[in-house]
Write a structure and sequence with these properties.
480 residues, alpha+beta, 5-stranded antiparallel beta sheet, 15 helices, 32% helix, binds flavin-adenine dinucleotide
Length: 480
């Protein structure tokens, strides 16, 4: 179906549209002409405006991708946050329908009381469905439920050619639009199958691991039974303690007062620590520790506490508390100012993960650039075009960026990339800041890239849709 762009909307690339936008890691960013449409017709008009003015278009959801996927200097930036209408909800079947700008938070707040939860969520609830599907997010249950894209029944994609296509899993384009990093069109409507839950709480088992061997043994032990698995790893552990940390396995449960636990008011976490200290002030305190010495202390203390206090003692946590803990520490990322931070996440097949992750942490120690936060997850492959999925594990690592360390950090990441590529591993565009075009060619392969280009020349023949990430990696369209 062709979407008619309304005439005379008064759209123009005028100075009052200019805003500075950046990725979640707050590195760089760009000035762009920002528009926040409320209807698909306006998006079609903006595609026309881009053609008329010789500019590119960049799509943006909630801006929760860490790097440069959600902005492009001097572009027409379409922020989809106002396209957030809920279009349908069936509490009998758990089928949810909403516009592309509906957030994960808006979905669970609408559906949980009826006993339905998103089958896949990221570590934050703020992403929009469109942004989450453009990157095809995974959760702490990736080994069991796959990616969010695997639970989509139908979506509408509006491309720069002005056509609105309804896609289902029978259509090859479905597998490119999901994972396509916003380069083929705007996802304006999504129909999702949610997961039935009887209770709003999970039973969580913390298991302290002294080293890499115990980490991998614990994942293997729990992956056949747990619903969620995630591990925190201390990057400062070395020698016999290399890979030490704390794994959390979690299970859906039934509770006696289950109905009450499904209410949003039960899910919301307190905004104070221990009832006294406001969480909104935590980032200021974190700033004191946000350097090598401070983080070595915090990581060691966390390892010690994991071993001595929590180890093996199950406890209950809400779905929201377990899934989105960081969301309840407002503005924690500001502790990384003034220069911001990157997240580096590589995905490695299971037979090589122990070696690659061990080497990555060793290389960081040698460079005195240890990650301040390291998280390991178990994954499975998926059928999407620009997939990051492997039958293996991922290690996500946050690195503070400073003027002084930037060059050395990028060099370290490039050397870590090489290691991952030699092991037939993969990367994730939502988390990337350091990949080179040759890295992407190697992990995605010539066939996937040819397929992306072929879809792009059909849906976006003028190469209108792009992003700073796409320009950096050579995934955009024609030069304009
Ligand atoms: C604290 C934190 C924890 C995270 N944890 C995880 C995790 O556990 N697992 C995981 O997979 N990810 C995780 N992420 C990453 C995050 O889920 C993804 O980056 C997600 O894509 C962000 O969605 P967004 O709406 O903010 O999109 P943006 O970041 O604004 O955009 C992402 C991409 O989608 C495109 N896009 C945006 N909207 C649309 C649309 N409607 N149609 C088509 N393309 C569009 C943009 O052009 C861009 O390329 C985390 C991020 C943070 C900040």
């Amino acid at each position: 179906m062709k979407v008619e762009a309304p005439m005379g909307m008064g759209l123009g690339v005028t100075p009052d549209r200019v805003e500075h936008v950046a990725g979640f890691g707050m590195l760089g960013g760009a000035d762009a002409f920002v528009f926040r449409p409320t209807r698909a017709e306006e998006i079609a008009a903006l595609f026309n405006l881009a053609r008329d003015t010789g500019r590119k278009v960049c799509l943006r959801g909630a801006g929760r991708s860490y790097g440069d996927a959600n902005y492009l200097p001097e572009s027409i930036l379409i922020d989809l946050c106002r396209m957030n209408r809920i279009l349908g909800w069936d509490p009998e079947t758990g089928i949810f329908e909403g516009e592309g700008g509906v957030t994960i938070e808006e979905v669970w707040r609408h559906t949980l009381e009826d006993g339905w939860w998103l089958p896949v969520v990221s570590g934050t609830m703020f992403p929009t469905l469109g942004g989450a599907l453009a990157m095809n997010i995974h959760g702490k249950n990736n080994f069991r439920e796959g990616t969010l894209g695997e639970h989509v029944l139908e979506l509408d994609l509006l491309s720069p050619d002005g056509k609105l296509r309804t896609l289902t899993p029978t259509d090859p384009l479905f597998f490119a639009a999901i994972s396509g990093a916003g380069l083929l069109g705007a996802i304006v409507r999504v129909k999702l199958q949610l997961k039935k839950v009887e209770c709003g709480e999970l039973q969580v088992l913390p298991v302290s691991c002294a080293n890499w061997e115990e980490q991998f043994a614990a994942f293997e032990q729990y992956e056949s039974e747990a619903d969620y698995l995630v591990s925190w790893i201390d990057a400062f552990g070395h020698g016999k303690s290399a890979g030490r940390g704390l794994i959390h396995a979690a299970w859906y449960t039934k509770a006696e007062s289950a109905r009450m636990t499904l209410r949003p008011s039960h899910q919301d976490l307190p905004d104070t620590v221990m009832g006294i200290f406001p969480k909104s002030a935590v980032w200021r305190k974190l700033r004191w520790f946000n350097r090598r010495f401070g983080m070595r202390l915090i990581n060691a203390a966390k390892s010690f506490a994991g071993r001595k206090v929590g180890d093996g003692k199950p406890y209950s946590d809400t779905l929201v508390g377990f899934s989105f803990l960081l969301d309840y520490v407002p503005n924690w990322r500001w502790a990384y100012l003034p220069d911001g931070f990157i997240q580096y996440q590589s995905f490695v097949p299971k037979e090589h993960a122990r070696y690659v992750f061990g080497r990555q942490l060793q290389m960081q120690r040698e460079a005195r650039l240890e990650s301040f936060l390291v998280v390991m997850k178990r994954h499975r492959p998926d059928p999407f075009l620009l997939s990051h999925g492997v039958d293996g594990y991922s290690l996500a690592m946050d690195f503070k960026v400073t003027q002084a360390n930037r060059e050395r950090l990028w060099d370290l990441c490039h050397r870590m990339n090489d290691l991952v590529l030699e092991s037939k591993g993969r990367f994730y565009l939502a988390k990337d800041s350091t990949l080179r075009p040759s890295d992407v060619e190697r992990y995605l392969g010539a066939e996937a890239l040819a397929s992306l280009r072929s879809f792009k020349s059909e849906l976006d023949p003028d190469g209108v849709l792009s992003s700073a990430l796409a320009e950096r990696l050579g995934l955009g369209g024609k030069a304009r």
